Amino acid sequence: MLQRQRQKKNKKPILVYFTGSDWCPPSKKLEKYFFQTDQFESESKKYNLVYLDNPYRDDIIPIQEKKENKIIATKFNVDFFPVLIALDYKGNECNRVERFSGEDATYHWKFMDKNKGIFKL
Fold first, then answer.
1. Where are the alpha helices (DSSP H) in 14-76?
2. How does pLDDT run across 2-40, given as a tens digit for each residue?
3. Which residue, among 30, 78, 18, has the nearest Cα to 54 in the 3D structure?
4. Which residues pair with 16 in a beta bridge?
5. Which pTM does this prediction carry?
6. Nearest in space to 69 (alpha carbons), one of 83, 88, 48, 90
7. Among 24, 67, 95, 120, which residue has the least CB neighbours within 10 Å?
């Protein structure tokens, strides 16, 4: 609850990343070719970042957190991974990009560029 209140107060858009960190090869590649770049590090400062993991193993995150992440994924119609959703500070979905293949993050950078126009970043 505290995080949600802070997000509304600072009015930054929210970037939500749905992943299967220990079993999803596309998520692992997206981490490497998109999230772990200097460009993303710079761009991400304009957002409140939310990482929602759905790992196969039960020892990665607490079971309750895993259950909550599944509920949130269902709310946003996330049926596969990876999915990146941009929300306004109130939690309304404004943009999304799904899946990842190969090593080319072009679609994810187009998603980020579109967000600039949506949120006036």
1. 25-30, 38-43, 63-75
2. 355 555 568 899 999 999 999 999 999 999 999 999 999
3. 18
4. 50, 85
5. 0.90
6. 83
7. 120
Q: Are 34 and 103 in contact (CB under 8 A)?
A: no
Token pair, residue 105, equals: 């993050």
Contact between residue 86 and residue 15 where contact means Cβ atoms under 8 Å apart: yes
The pair of three-digit structure tokens given for residue 5, joined into one six-digit string: 């209140």
Token output for 70: 């599944």
Mode of pairing for the β-strands spanning 93-98 and 14-19: unpaired
Enter the tokens of residue 8. Answer: 């509304």
Tokens of 91: 């939690």
Which pair of tokens denotes residue 63? 């079971």
Q: Which residue has the tokens 């599944």?
A: 70
